[in-house]
From TrEMBL:
Keyword rRNA-binding found: no
Superkingdom assignment: Bacteria
Protein name: 3'(2'),5-bisphosphonucleoside 3'(2')-phosphohydrolase
Keyword set includes Magnesium: yes
Catalytic activity field: adenosine 3',5'-bisphosphate + H2O = AMP + phosphate
PROSITE patterns found in the cross-reference section: IMP_1 (PS00629)
Species the sequence originates in: Mycobacterium deserti
Keywords: Magnesium, Metal-binding
């Protein structure tokens, strides 16, 4: 099984597990659903990767950081449940599972599953649809759109699309639902590694907000900002964000 197939298969299977958690805990509190979803998906991914790729190291949002990753050639960067709040709210479909592989300095495989939408986007090749909107669409959180995204909207005369998790936002650019995702204010490597791998496979622009490369498997996994957009908007977006 290739690394691409493994990433896609694990993200999809973890998503199916999470849908089962939702059904099982439909009458539980949102907090109970969040905790169960995080733990069960993490346990499944960690155990599966230990079986399928026993020599690799795993960096997971829900697991203890293993310092061995800093000297490893292959590190799986996973977010077992991206968008726990959206997952906990029954009926929401904008949450995701992220599985990515970092190899010798680069993201080489990745998958973003949107279980409640029945979709998984994965490397090695993703084909985005052609642009259709008259004005660029900037995808933002429904409750807290960052000021930098509002600045991009104003500069490009764009419109806002509200959505939950980072994985769902990047997938919306891949799907053609939006054109630009810009974030500043706090994320970690597991929030963006798989979405960025998928976005790159779709030919989208990916970078920090100052235009510098996104670098993964660093000692501090904080990676607080990023831009993912259709390539035709990259220069205009960075003219705003890099300033």
């Amino acid at each position: 099984m290739t690394d691409h197939d493994l990433a896609a298969g694990l993200a999809t299977a973890a998503g199916e597990l999470l849908l089962g958690v939702r059904r099982e805990l439909a009458n539980a509190s949102e907090g109970e659903r969040k905790a169960a979803g995080d733990k069960r998906s993490h346990d499944f991914l960690a155990e599966s990767l230990a079986t399928e790729r026993p020599d690799d190291v795993v960096l997971s949002e829900e697991g203890a950081d293993n310092p061995a990753r800093l000297s490893a050639e292959r590190v799986w960067i996973v977010d077992p449940l991206d968008g726990t709040r959206e997952f906990s709210e029954l009926g929401r479909d904008d949450w995701a599972v992220h599985v990515a592989l970092w190899h010798s300095g680069e993201l080489v495989a990745g998958a973003v599953a949107l279980p409640a939408q029945g979709s998984t986007f994965a490397t090695p090749a993703v084909t985005p649809p052609p642009a259709t909107a008259d004005r660029p669409r900037i995808v933002v959180s429904r409750t807290r759109p960052p000021a930098i995204a509002l600045a991009v909207r104003d500069a490009l005369d764009g419109t806002l699309v509200e959505m939950g998790s980072a994985g769902a936002k990047v997938a919306s650019v891949v799907q053609g639902i939006s054109d630009i995702y810009v974030h500043a204010g706090g994320q970690y490597e597991w929030d963006s590694a798989a979405p960025v791998a998928v976005a790159r496979a779709a030919g989208l622009h990916t970078s920090r907000i100052d235009g510098s490369p996104l670098v993964y498997n660093r000692p501090d996994p904080l990676l607080p900002d990023l831009v993912v957009c259709r390539p035709e908007f990259a220069d205009a977006v960075l003219a705003v964000t890099a300033g």
